[in-house]
Write a structure and sequence with these properties.
The complex is a heterodimer of chains A (about 350) and B (about 170).
Chain A (H helix, E strand, L loop, with lengths): L1 H6 L2 H19 L8 H78 L3 E8 L8 E4 L12 E4 L2 E9 L4 E5 L6 E6 L5 E6 L4 E7 L9 E4 L11 E10 L4 E8 L8 E5 L8 H25 L57
Antiparallel strand pairs in A: 1-2, 1-12, 2-5, 3-4, 3-12, 4-5, 6-7, 6-9, 7-8, 8-11, 9-10, 10-11
Chain B lengths: L1 H18 L4 E2 L2 E2 L3 H13 L1 H18 L6 H19 L5 H25 L9 H41 L1
Antiparallel strand pairs in B: 1-2
Helix pairs in contact in B: 1-2, 1-3, 2-3, 2-4, 2-5, 2-6, 3-4, 4-5, 5-6
The chains are: A alpha+beta (about 350), B mainly alpha (about 170).
């Protein structure tokens, strides 16, 4: 039956016989490399079969592995999320550490630059009442701190120590409404008094004839015997002419008090002021006063010539709220009268810097 | 039965071919008796028998030679199949058509045979056209004569029997 069946399909028989003949020929012929042709052909064909089989097996294995992996991927995903969160926290800690290091480095540079005996201190608490601008540092009398020591930072003047305990101190910031400091315009050396306004600073008692421009840097004058001379307080933000003979200057503090972390407490008292210095200072102030009065007589109308109340405007104390001790601010230039030097030559300004 | 007879004819042709092996023209046999037998059997039996006979005859011929076994078999398989196919499609009983059939079959056989050898870089044939054409014409003539003889033989034997019987009755 099979023979009859094949006899009716000559093409199939022909193809079969041809294939057999080709196989037979291939078994005897070598390639140029000397390998039997049938071996090369068989190997080539079978390698394709092997490749296909391997691909199939790999595909099946991949599917199975993917399925198994998918079963664990949720657990792994949650673990990875936890790890990411942990790493994010750690990253924040590292950043904070880096910022802290940078802050300390700046503080160290300031200490070396200032050439003053200082004690580095960390701020450990802010104001108990937002009405007052003070803070607590972690150094006290056991570290040599005492009242009325200046507190500075790399950016500028911060304030002064107003209360010390053995291991902590309270610092009154310069922007506190009860704070004040002797100041001068760095460019023209025009002196005045800087007082806290809560957020900004106000510079008063600068003669109206003085050359003051917006953007001028205001530095400490050292006349208050608290803050060392020449430290930056801020920059002139606005200038208005008050009713009197003085400029009314708004000063933008150089220090960002909301971001303070570390400060330096100056334990070295300001250099002693000699009688000669006081005499020079008094002469300069008298000259400024005369110039201001001359300008007032010539340019100011009688209504506006009313002498301005020399005392800084201090806010009324709130009921029941304890007030920080007042800054021993220097007298306004008009009220500063250089006392006669003492017989031993020490500076005779016991009352200087006190606001009346 | 038909295949056995065909194989016997092939065997006879091979035996005769070996005795005529000295008749070569430029390295190619002047006549290919096996091919003539294959073509003739294919013409009268059809493509399947033709390709099987051709395959067997070629393989035997290859086995008896020093060449690659299968190349001659492949060539004769193709020739047997083509001849058998043409024999079923056309009337190829006239001498001229048979002559042409033998010539074409010889050329086809030589083309495959030499082509495969050259393709496999096993042997080179320098200008084989004249030898092939000589063999084709020789195969054509011999094939036509042989075919006529084969087909006339049964009638001659019958006529001889009948004449002998008539003489005896007188």
């Amino acid at each position: 039956m099979a023979t009859i069946h094949l006899a009716q399909r000559p093409l199939i028989v022909f193809a079969l016989v041809i294939v057999l003949q080709i196989i037979l020929i291939s078994a005897q012929v070598n390639t140029t490399a000397g390998i039997p042709f049938i071996q090369v052909v068989t190997f080539g064909a079978f390698s394709e079969v092997q490749r296909g089989t391997m691909n199939s097996v790999d595909g099946a294995r991949g599917l199975w592995t993917g399925y198994v992996d998918l079963r664990d991927v949720q657990t792994e995903n949650e673990a990875l999320k936890r790890e990411v969160q942990t790493l994010q926290v750690r990253l924040q800690e590292e950043r904070a550490q880096a910022q802290r290091t940078e802050s300390l480095r700046q503080l160290l540079e300031l200490r070396e630059r200032a050439g003053l005996a200082t004690v580095a201190s960390e701020i450990i608490a802010g104001p108990a009442d937002l009405e007052f601008r003070d803070m607590t540092i972690d150094k006290g009398t056991s570290d040599g701190l005492r009242q009325d020591m200046a507190v500075i930072s790399p950016a500028g003047v911060v304030g002064r120590v107003i209360l010390s305990s053995p291991r902590a101190s309270r610092v009154q910031m310069l922007i506190d409404r009860n704070a004040a400091a002797g100041a001068m315009i760095e460019r023209t050396r025009a002196q005045g008094l800087v007082m806290g306004q809560g957020e900004a600073l106000r510079m008063e008692y600068v003669p109206g004839t003085s050359d003051v421009k917006q953007g001028d840097i205001v530095v400490t004058s050292g006349i208050d015997k608290i803050y060392p001379k020449g430290f930056v307080i801020g920059t002139v933000a606005a200038i208005t002419r008050d009713t009197g003979n003085y400029h009314d200057i708004i000063v933008q503090p150089a220090v960002d008090f909301s971001r303070l972390e570390d400060v330096l407490v100056v334990t070295t008292p300001p250099p002693a002021v000699t009688a000669e210095d006081i005499a020079k200072e008094a002469a300069a102030l008298a000259e400024q006063q005369r110039a201001a009065q001359t300008v007032a007589v010539q340019n100011v109308s009688p209504q506006n010539a009313t002498p301005r109340n020399a005392g800084p405007r201090a806010p009324a104390p709130r009921n029941g709220t304890p007030r920080a001790p007042r800054t021993p601010a220097p007298r306004p230039p008009a009220a500063v009268v250089p006392p006669p030097p003492s017989p031993d030559g020490t500076p005779g300004i016991p009352g200087a810097g006190r606001r009346q | 039965m038909k295949i056995l007879a065909a194989l016997a004819a092939v065997a006879a042709a091979l035996a005769l071919q070996t005795t005529l092996a000295s008749l070569v023209i430029r390295g190619t046999a002047a006549l290919d008796l096996v091919l003539i037998v294959v073509v003739y059997i294919s013409l009268i039996t059809g493509p399947v028998t033709g390709l099987l006979v051709g395959s067997a005859a070629g393989l035997i011929q290859d086995a008896l030679s020093s060449g690659i076994i299968g190349i001659g078999g492949l060539a004769k398989t193709v020739v047997g199949f083509v001849a058998g196919f043409l024999g079923t499609q056309f009337i190829l009983t006239a001498p001229l058509s048979r002559f042409l059939m033998f010539v074409v079959a010889t050329v086809l056989h030589a083309s495959i045979f030499m082509g495969l050898y050259m393709l496999l870089e096993l042997r080179q044939f320098d200008n084989p056209y004249s030898a092939v054409m000589s063999q084709a014409i020789g195969n054509g003539f011999l094939g036509v004569v042989a075919a006529q003889l084969v087909e006339l033989l049964p009638g001659l034997r019958d006529r001889r029997k009948r004449s002998r019987a008539a003489r005896l009755t007188r």
